[in-house]
Structures are given as C-alpha cells and as structure tokens.
Specification:
By secondary structure, this protein is α+β, with helices and mostly antiparallel strands. It has 5 helices and 11 strands. A hairpin with a 2-residue loop joins strand 2 and strand 3.
C-alpha cells in the first residue's frame, strides 16, 4: 500500500471517519437517556415538594399529649427520628395517632402526658405530624429547586464534555496528529471489537509508550511488524491506529 498523507492540519470531516457517527449517536442517546431520567426524577421530587408545601399551608397547629415514644438505640440517635403515639382533639372529636415522626433532639427526655406540638390537615384529621419535624423538613425542601438546577447544569456539563471528548478522540489525531510507526508489545488479537493494546514508538531518539486504539475487525496499515498510528501532544499516552479502510476513505492512498 502506497500512502499519500497530507501534512497537518488535514481536512478530515466526521462523516468520512468510518464508525464515528455511530459512536457519536451512542453519546447522544446516552445524553438523552440521562436527561430523561433526570427530568423524571425532578418531576417526582417536585410533586413531593408541592405536596409538602400544600400540607404546611393547610395544616392547623394543635397541641397533643404524648402517650408512648419509641427511640432508636443510644449510639444511633444523632440526627435520627423517634416514633410517637399521641392524643389530640380536633374540635369536639378526640383522636389517637401512632407512628408520628419527630426529631429525637426535640422529644428525648419527655414523659407520658408531655405537650407535643402538632400540625393537622383539616381534610385528613387522623394523620397529624409533629410541627417542629415538619417545619425543619420544609426548610430543607426549600433547597430542593436549587439542587435540581445544579444537578441539571451538572448533567448538561457532563454531556457536553463527553460529546467534546468523543469528537476530539475521533477527529483531532487524524487532523493534527503526528503519524508514527508503532511497535506493538504483543501480537495483535483478531477481534471484531475495538482493540486497545500497548505499543511504543521512537521520536528524536526517545522511546515513547502509548495505548493504541484499533477499530474492531479492521486491518491496520503495516510496515513489517509495525503499524501506522496518529499521536497528539494534547492526548499523551494515546494513539489512533490508521487502518486500511480509514486510509482509503480519507484518500490517503495513491
């Protein structure tokens, strides 16, 4: 095979690199799946926040009386929750509720008959909540929109970075890379999957080690036991092997 490779920078378009559009498509699909999952999670979280805010807006403060209390073990109480059984009145009707969650720091040390501040939704009077616990969680939920925004920006940044990295890995070595003859450390396996193998090359009497990438099922351009590859100073330790199909597609063959 006689090569006629132009000097860098070379005119290489994405559509002329075999398999590049497929890899780019996989990145785009992955980004779309990430955005869909993030949107679904944000919708569920937003619905929960709206429901919590609606409860706080509707609920009426009442005083309840502690009947019993279940606390976690002593070594697990930091930031933990207790479960209360309480008695309370909504108008003329008396209610008893169990499993009312409260912060351990607010109720630890209280005995039977102690006053427990409650919030009760008039629409569902049999499901009270401990007021201090509800309001503390409401303050924390107020930060959720900011967290969702930061998560969305992070996901967009990750997607943009991965897209840029893919484009760079596909095109930059071919456009600007230095072409070298690599000596693989071992015999190249025959595989239809992409192969990454260790290799070395010489430049100005210095030996450089790289991890070379060869497309699956392709025959590299050879010179004896060496293979042709493109290396780029901005991607140290990496090399893109030039296979025969790629060389012909880019018209690097006479």
């Amino acid at each position: 095979m006689q090569l006629a490779i132009p000097q860098a920078p070379r005119r290489v378009s994405l559509i002329r690199v075999p398999g590049a559009l497929a890899r780019l498509g996989r990145v785009l699909l992955g980004g779309l799946a990430l955005m869909t999952a993030l949107g679904a999670g944000a919708a569920l979280l937003g619905r929960f926040v709206v429901e919590e805010q609606g409860f706080v807006a509707r609920a009426e403060p009442l005083d309840g009386q502690l009947v019993t209390m279940t606390l976690p073990p002593l070594d697990e109480r930091d930031g933990a929750e207790a479960r209360l059984e309480v008695l309370y009145n909504v108008g003329p009707v008396s209610y008893s509720a169990s499993g009312v969650r409260a912060r351990v720091e607010d109720v630890e040390g209280l005995g039977r008959g102690a006053r427990i501040p409650l919030l009760v939704d008039p629409q569902v009077p049999d499901k009270p909540r401990e007021e201090r616990h509800v309001r503390a969680r409401a303050r924390a939920l107020g930060l959720v929109p900011w967290g969702v925004l930061l998560g969305a920006l992070g996901a967009l940044g990750l997607f943009a970075w991965e897209l840029k990295r893919t484009l760079r890995a596909e095109l930059e070595p071919l456009r600007k890379g230095m072409l070298v003859w690599l000596t693989p450390d071992t015999a190249l396996p025959e595989s239809r999957r992409e192969t990454i193998f260790p290799a070395t090359y010489w430049k100005q009497d210095q030996k450089h080690a790289v991890r070379a990438r060869l497309r699956g099922g392709r025959a590299p351009v050879r010179n004896g036991d060496k293979v042709l590859a493109a290396v780029l100073s901005s991607l140290p330790g990496e090399a893109r092997v030039i296979d025969e199909e790629l060389a012909r597609t880019l018209e690097w063959v006479r």
